[in-house]
Fold this sequence. Notes:
Elements: E1 9-12, H1 18-29, E2 33-38, H2 41-53, E3 57-62, H3 68-78, E4 84-89, H4 105-133, E5 136-141, H5 154-173, E6 179-186, H6 192-204, H7 213-224, H8 235-245, E7 257-260
Parallel strand pairs: 1-2, 1-4, 2-3, 4-5, 5-6, 6-7
Helix pairs in contact: 1-8, 3-4, 4-5, 6-7
Amino acid sequence: MDLQLEGKVALVTGSSKGIGEGIARGLAFEGAVVIVHGRDRAKTEAVASDIVASGGRAQAVVGDLTVDDEVARLIEAAQAAGPVEILVNNAGGAGPAEDWSATRPESWAAGYDRNVLAAVRVTTALLPAMRRAKWGRIVNISSLAALMAPAARPDYGAAKAAMLAMTASLAKAVATDGITVNTVSPGTIHSDSLDRAFRKAAVERGLAPDAPWAEVEAAVLPLFAAVPLRRVGTLAEIADAVAFLVSPRAGYITGVNLRLDGGLWPGF
């Protein structure tokens, strides 16, 4: 299927590693001009350079999304590639591993700023041009933690839940402007950090450090999550879902929360 993304400019925040990097590479593969964003200049430029070396089109922008002036500068740099028509708000993440015996209000404030307000800053900067053009795609990357909040890191689950409400509100606000807004909520995804955690647990249970991933996954996944599909998701699967949602072919899909969790959410 041709997703009709050739030449469209896409900004993916937090795309110097992990899920964001996977999404950036997927969009570049589909022909989009990808703006790779991160706070570490070397890592961000390395991802952009590798996309270009692989035949894609990309450029790097650097900035802290919790600082207004840095957001303004990176938006200006991103628009040098052309009007940004696609925005993927992926930057964020969890803070210190605090549970309810130790959680602090300042941790909640920082997590909200890092996840929700960062997305608000970038979105509000790009939205006017999308409205004038009568076309745009926004995807907010939340987490299954928004729906299945764990006991630990309550601030993270709450911040990601706020992104679901933000998506629903914005989708209604721009419904007549040719702009769609959706959320993607990943479950257990095979990132570098998950690979390290799984392999550490596997070694503790007697597997060899270089055991094939299939053996590691089979032995360790049940300890982390009861995924009905009995495997973790891949970065490519996240990227494919996002690529479809930001494509012209998904023009009648807005305000949804697409879970990529292998059926883990109750109701499978």
